[in-house]
Design brief:
Strand content: 5-15%
CATH superfamily of the largest domain: Ribonuclease III domain
Radius of gyration: 20 Å
Helix content: 55-70%
CATH architecture of the largest domain: Orthogonal Bundle
Number of helices: 12
Order of helices and strands: HHHHHHHHHHHEEEH
Length: about 240
């Protein structure tokens, strides 16, 4: 989809997401990167960073409420681990790609040439800023429903496959029990077009390679490499269950 950062286009996009009443000014701010405000000599308050701060809290509250209701018998620690994954940049980036926010993000000319609008970090920040803008100006229950409707399948997947998503933590706990040294993740290669890259990562411990894996983001590749390393070390069994 071609880029279209016009006010009308962005407003129509938000309406298609299911929001009829909202502050057009706040939404414009939510989709504006600081590089654009600097390039255009606009005030700091016209970039998304303050709204991102608010939206982060909105997202966490919506997810926390859902987890509390969805898993009434789960311990606080388990719920915290699931929430940490769900509110991560990686998951927010998946959300952003699902609804296709990229064409509406405003960045500087230089940032756009570098592919900034495609970056996981920027798209994740814009998502949080959009939540903040809608929290301030749209129906709060509709916003909560929108967040959960889109994240619920991912939440359920993470709840069922906690060991995959927590493999890095499991591996780190293991290495720290052996020594003070941590696992090291190294980028082996990246292939594919800028908008569809595949990253290959290897994880090492004491300079010994434990596993190598690939993924569409560096974080996903690291998770997969850690998971494979945990299986190799006998920390996780073939069924994906943590060995005690």
């Amino acid at each position: 989809m071609p880029s279209d950062c016009s006010d009308k286009s962005l407003n129509n996009f938000i309406k298609k997401l299911g929001f009829d009443k909202f502050s057009k000014e706040l939404i414009q701010t939510a989709f504006t990167h600081s590089s654009f405000t600097k390039e255009q000599d606009l005030p700091y308050t016209k970039c998304y960073e303050r709204l991102e701060f608010l939206g982060d809290a909105v997202l966490k509250m919506a997810v926390t409420d859902y987890l509390y209701q969805k898993f009434p018998d789960s311990h606080e620690g388990d719920l915290t681990k699931i929430r940490a994954v769900i509110v991560s940049d990686e998951i927010l980036h998946k959300f952003a790609q699902k609804i296709d926010i990229e064409p509406y993000i405003k960045v500087s000319g230089a940032e756009e040439k570098c592919g900034g609008k495609k970056l996981e970090s920027i798209q994740a920040c814009v998502m949080e800023a959009m939540f903040g803008a809608l929290y301030l100006s749209a129906d709060k229950e509709a916003l909560k429903d929108f967040i959960i409707k889109n994240l619920a399948p991912l939440i359920d997947d993470i709840a069922e496959n906690k060991t995959v998503y927590n493999a890095k933590a499991i591996l780190q706990e293991y290495t720290q029990s052996k020594s003070k040294d941590l696992p090291v993740y190294e980028l082996v290669k990246e292939t594919g077009a800028a908008h569809n890259k595949t990253f290959t990562i290897k994880v090492l411990y004491h300079n010994k390679e434990l596993a190598t894996a690939s993924g569409k983001t560096k974080k996903h590749a690291q998770q997969q490499a850690a998971y494979m390393a945990c299986q190799k070390l006998g920390l996780i069994n073939k069924e994906g269950t943590i060995n005690e």
